[in-house]
Amino acid sequence: MKLTINKYVIAFSLLFSLGACAEFLDEKPDISLVVPTSLDDLQGLLDDSVLRRMNTGSGAIVISADDIILSDVGFAARTLMERQVYTWDKDLLQGTPNFPDWSISYQQIFNANLVLNGLENFEINSAEEGLKKQRIKGRALFYRAMAYHNLMELFCLPYNPSTAPQNLGLPLRKSNNINLQVTRSNLEETFQFILKDLNESVELLPDAIDVVTRPSKVSAFALLTRLSMIEGDFEMASEYARTAISLGNELKDYNTVNAAPIIPFPFTSNQELIFHQSASFYGTIGFSPETMVNPVILEMYEEGDLRRNIFFRQTPSGISFKGNYSGQITWFTGLAMDEVYLNLAESLARTGRGQEALDYMNILLEKRFNPNFFNQIENTDEEEILQFVLNERRKTLLFRPVRWMDLRRFNQSAASAIVLSRQVGGEVFTLSPNSLNFALPIPENDIELGGLIQNKRE
């Protein structure tokens, strides 16, 4: 893959950073000095080979969920911000001007808007250029949708169609004009904006994945599946998932995976990957021996389940996770086929098609078990089938943003709501299902400079 990022990404990243600083310059940088002049320049902004920010997801979203356990030593060694994220502290970010999970996502949105704006008046001289322009626009729309999706799951209360019009959404930046002041939309407007971008991108993106760091139709349908589940529309979720599977890569057979390496899934050879993204770096993330797996999860694996040996390793403090699909020490925050299969199975189970859900689960689990221990799963009780799918979801998608998203949507029903609890140094911290602390605070710089309404905490 040829990357053409060069001076444009560096210049525009600097421009965005200057625009976001507390010491905002009286004289703004002249954007005309570095305007992209070709389609390759615009694609370069999306590839972002220098800073890799377009393929960076949230670390806080993984730390906030209940997959990880920090030892007391590990907790004490973390930064104040990480400790506050881990304990759902109501005073998170007080006195902190910036938060990478916010600023990196808005950098992605800025780059996407810059590309979309640049494409508007770009003259096309051939059919080849026309197709390239179409692909670039589809990718920019997907990146913008993905960034807003990540922001929504961290900085807004959980989405519910009945309350979303009354709840705060995000500042929806649709232009690359950094001087344009944008207030917060409501949550319904945010959600619909993400859907609009994705639905438009589906029409423009290529069917097949050419480069795993670039989106395709498979990526867009996978994300639409996730959003439909958040919305509670499991009929649409199942349709989107079927389409993604029909277009997408195959599942990886774990019988072919070497469990010994500390990185067992190099992203260059993992056919399950749909869209590669890895978390912004925190000390908690990666192979810290003090970051351990919640013991509840470890107890769920059966004999012959290959995930038990591939995903985990023994450390002096306990069992830690090494099953990253990122191919790096940071956690995978992108999209993969295993999630799509589990999304489809859950959607089918929730709409009274339990046997069909099990059919897809059997396809997935056959790739996860030693063949000497695998038996086709059979069941006729719809509630038991749903619980089985949810258990497998927990065992498969751990240490990804999916768990936090699942907790937020499970909490929409009292029957499935989960109280989160952690103990640090003898002190117990909890997060109740309807807590305001499910929406992280917005960085103080953006509250002051943008005049934004801050999230309430309790």
Automatic annotation (TrEMBL):
Gene3D superfamilies: 1.25.40.390. It is found in: Cell outer membrane. InterPro entries: SusD-like_N, SusD_RagB_dom, TPR-like_helical_dom_sf. Residues 1-22 form the signal peptide. The keyword Aminoacyl-tRNA synthetase does not apply. Residues 23-227 form the SusD-like N-terminal domain. Residues 339-415 form the RagB/SusD domain. Its main location: membrane. SUPFAM superfamilies: TPR-like. It holds the Pfam family SusD-like_3. Keywords: Cell outer membrane, Membrane, Signal. Belongs to the SusD family. This is SusD family protein. It comes from Belliella aquatica.
